[in-house]
Amino acid sequence: RRRVLEASQQLTEIINSETSAESPEPSRGAEPADEEESALHCLWVDKFTPRRYMELLSDDYTNRCLLKWLKLWDTVVFGKEKAVKKAKPSAEAHPPSSQPKEQQNKWKTKVQLTEEILEAELDQHKRPKCKVALLCGPPGLGKTTLAHVIAKHAGYNAVEMNASDDRSPEVFKTRIEAATQMKSVLGANEKPNCLIIDEIDGAPAASINVLLNIIHHKDGEGEAAAGTGRRRRREGGLLLRPIICICNDQ
C-alpha cells in the first residue's frame, strides 16, 4: 500500500509539472486558459464517465433490456416499422406443449419472461405495452449514467428532472408535459426528448398520481371521438415519448 501511494504521488507530480510547463499562448486569449483550468479541476467521475454504449460497465442484461424497450418506441417516435422476428426452426420442429399457459410460465426464468414482455405486440397507437421503465438500485450503481447513454444511443435528447425538487403536482405535470409533448428547437439536429425522472421515490403521492394519469391516459377516447380533427385533439394528451424513472428504494 505504501509503494502504491508513493507511485501515485510521483505520477501526480509528473502530471502537475507537465501541465504547468505547457502555458497557453498569449494570442489565444482567455477562453483556452479557462478551458484548461476547468479541465484541471474536473471531477474524475465526470472526466471518465461513459459516453458510449460499449463503455458501460453495468449489468449487460439490464443494458440490453432497457435499450430493447427504448427501441420499441421507434414506430411512434421515428416512424420506423417494427422488425418482424423470424420463427426459430427449433420451435417449428417441436409441437407446442399441451400444458396450460400458467404451467408453462411457472418454469420460465426471469430472463425469458422479461424477453417475452419486451417482444409483446404494440398497442393501437403503436406504443409499447409498458410505457415507463424503472431503474432501481443503490447510489453509485450507474443508473442515471445508463439512462443518459442509452437515450443518446437510441437517438433521443435526454431531458432530466428531479422528482423530489418539484413538490407541487401542478409544476410536476407541467414539466412532464413540456418534456414529452414539445421538442427542442435549438441546433440543426432536432431530436425527440426522452424524459428521465430521477429520485422518483422522493416524490409526493400527488405527483405520482399525476404521472400515473399521464401514463394510463384512456386510449379509447380517441376511437370514441367522431371525425379526424376531433380525434387528433383527443390524442394530444397521449404519452408519445418514453419515460425512464430512477429510484434507490423500490
UniProtKB/TrEMBL annotation:
Output the InterPro entries linked to this UniProt entry: AAA+_ATPase, ATPase_AAA_core, CTF18-RFC_complex, P-loop_NTPase
Tell me, which GO biological process terms does this entry list? Answer: DNA replication
> Gene3D superfamilies attached here?
P-loop containing nucleotide triphosphate hydrolases
Q: Where is this protein found? A: Nucleus
Q: Where is this chain compositionally biased, Polar residues type?
A: 13-22
GO terms of molecular function: ATP binding; ATP hydrolysis activity; DNA binding
Q: Which CDD domains match?
A: AAA
- Entry keyword set: ATP-binding, Cell cycle, DNA replication, DNA-binding, Nucleotide-binding, Nucleus
A cellular component term, taken from the record's GO annotations: nucleus
Cite the AAA+ ATPase domain residue spans from the record: 129-241
Annotated segments matching region Disordered: 13-36, 87-107
Among Pfam families, the record links this protein to: AAA (PF00004)
Which protein family is it in?
Answer: Belongs to the activator 1 small subunits family. CTF18 subfamily.
Protein name as catalogued: AAA+ ATPase domain-containing protein
Organism annotation: Spheniscus mendiculus (Galapagos penguin)
